[in-house]
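batch job 7 of whatever, protein = Phenylalanine--tRNA ligase alpha subunit
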Amino acid sequence: MKEKLQELEKEALLKVNEAKELKDLQEVRVAYLGKKGPITEVLRGMGKLSKEERPVIGELANKVRENIANELDGKKSTLEAIELEKQLENETIDVTLPGRPVQIGGPHLLTSIVGEIEDLFIGMGFEVREGPEVETDYYNFEALNLPKGHPARDMQDSFYITEDILLRTHTSPVQARTMGEYNGEKPVKMICPGKVYRRDTDDATHSHQFTQIEGLYVDKDVRMSDLKGVLNRFAKEMFGEDREIRLRPSFFPFTEPSVEMDISCKVCNGKGCSVCKKTGWIEILGGGMVHPRVLEMAGYDPDVYNGFAFGMGPERIAMLKYGVDDIRHFYINDNRFLKQYHKA
């Protein structure tokens, strides 16, 4: 029995020394130290030995088991170190290589245009106000001189949620809310940018969702010439000092008198071309003097206060300023289009 244990130890240590991989060591461990291994069988057969042999063989078996286990652990540490060295060698990073370029994004073209317009009007003393996109029928229509059944409501085919709740069709409700907040007690000078929604078929010049910026100035002794001066400054700042404007009579329920503003075509300088349809002018926005009824509903005395309002679409401003031929470019997130307008 003693010779057998010594032979098993010698055999196991030789296999440990020959192991090249961790899986080989595990096989040796199971084969010699496992529950079905030869050393375990020796220990199980000790009952057949004499009383004198049992302690000797038991001590030797434990010593053999311990020697094999120690060799296995030592070899395992050596193989793990070798594998780690190989892994580090394979994963070495050459820090002298140039880094991959990082693409830096920028504001969306519409965001830039809205910011530019805001800065322009803030410089003229206007404040920026915001309001809810889900609006009541009262603020979206009735407070703006568009009572239920008014034919002009058909001009703004709306997304109704309930009979009295809808997605706003313009940002004018923010003007009505602000005037109501002031309750006719102080002047208002504001612009209100934001998204608006109308039932429309999307094409190159129309969208069911778009942005608007509307302006309002209510005070004593406000004149149409003040509106023209503000819009003229806007046109020149946005499109160049050589741009000319003209105001044409129009109709809007919330202003009286109402006008539409054209700017001289920058392509032909007013001579007439395909862009301006041979007229020399391009329509850009609408406005007018605030209707007395709108002032009354907001708590202002129309005999004391008057004012002007205007509204424009940043998409149209961007299309005219940068020559964009399709409004859908603003919404399809094509990076080839968007990156053209990233400012460094």
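notes: The first strand starts at residue 127 and ends at 128.
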